[in-house]
Amino acid sequence: MHWLVVGTGAVGSLMAVNLRRVGEHVSLKPRSATPHPIEIIHEAHTLQFNTQQLPINAPTQIFAAVKAYDVATFLEELKQSPLPDDSSIILSYNGMLDNESTIMPERALHWVTTHGAYRHNNEVVHAGVGESWLGWARVEHASSRRPTEVFNVLNNALPLLNWSPAIDQRRWQKLAINCLINPFTVLHNCRNGELLQHDITAQQLQVAEEICWLAEHKGIRLHAETLVESALTVIKNTARNYSSMLVDVQQQRRTEIDFLNGFVARQSLQAGKAAPANELLWHRVQELAN
């Protein structure tokens, strides 16, 4: 089975080295095309990956771990260069897009994870072991049979992987966890675990309550207290990890805040209710990023 990992950030790099570890053929598609192999260091081993761009002629499993703001551009590129039969597209990104329902490919899959990872130069560090969920991106395919071979390879590469017919529920939970952790690591300029030294629980609860209201408006049932408890568990399990948002701010790159707390604030307002806690975090991170 041939895999093309799109994106060479922390999650893409972690998946690439683990797919290679279990014997899969893996190429990388970086944001900027390069004819040279890409080196990734993992657990003191240096691995080289050839690069590949679209179009693709042979059946390929695409694992796209991209920034939320790059999703639409990548899917448009994919639309212009359709994949061969027996290929698949797995998407992994933080947050949600306002127009997801109109741009999602017919047989795309969402991969949601609680694994923690960060990159330091060419090295990828698996800073927190979690678990992941895979499910069909389009709601009309939610009850369709899982793609067994793709599922098994991903589970072998980075366990534990769960099949989720209700992947939207998992995506809302992941959205909430990111909203409850990432912006706070930027505000306090710290690793995930160092948030335990700051009194943020009351603010997190307000953020979670606003997310629950919006989720219920869209047919998803969540509980604010449970989300805050889950965020605390993730903070402890990924204590050594630097959130991707903090890394983006430190490296003066665009953050995904527009697709996390910003998404909640915008969508809530459209639904008829303000989300001031999420809006405050949205604008504070924007200020610090600029």
Automatic annotation (TrEMBL):
Its EC number is 1.1.1.169. Residues 3-135 form the Ketopantoate reductase N-terminal domain. It is an enzyme of class 1 (oxidoreductase). InterPro entries: 6-PGluconate_DH-like_C_sf, 6PGD_dom2, ApbA, Ketopantoate_reductase, KPA_reductase, KPR_N, NAD(P)-bd_dom_sf. It catalyses: (R)-pantoate + NADP(+) = 2-dehydropantoate + NADPH + H(+). Keywords: NADP, Oxidoreductase, Pantothenate biosynthesis. Coiled coil: none annotated. The keyword Cytoplasm does not apply. Residues 167-287 form the Ketopantoate reductase C-terminal domain. It comes from the Bacteria. Belongs to the ketopantoate reductase family. NCBIfam families: apbA_panE. This is 2-dehydropantoate 2-reductase.
